[in-house]
Design a protein that fits this description.
Elements: H1 2-30, H2 36-71
Length: 89
């Protein structure tokens, strides 16, 4: 259940990062004059937010994989031959 919270938070951060990138685009293209100084700081903020969201998504997927791996049964051990050694395939 905890990984769902991380995954939702990750997607929210990714969307927020994309929104910040849109604001950067609007500041550079849709305004009267390009405000380069403001856009630089917004771009850095957007990159940090976006990468944080991607990291949370990776952690949530890793947690889900670990939970599924714990539920899987162990594979059967190799059967010994008449000589007592396992068979190599």
């Amino acid at each position: 259940m905890r990984f769902w919270v991380r995954e939702i938070a990750g997607w929210l951060l990714v969307l927020l990062g994309l929104f910040v990138f849109y604001i950067c685009f609007a500041v550079l293209v849709l305004t009267e004059g390009p405000w380069l100084f403001e856009a630089i700081f917004l771009t850095v903020i957007g990159v940090v937010i976006f990468r944080s969201g991607i990291h949370l998504l990776k952690v949530a997927v890793a947690a889900r994989v670990c939970l599924q791996a714990q539920r899987l049964p162990e594979p059967n051990p190799p059967r010994p031959t008449s000589a007592g050694r396992p068979v190599k395939v």
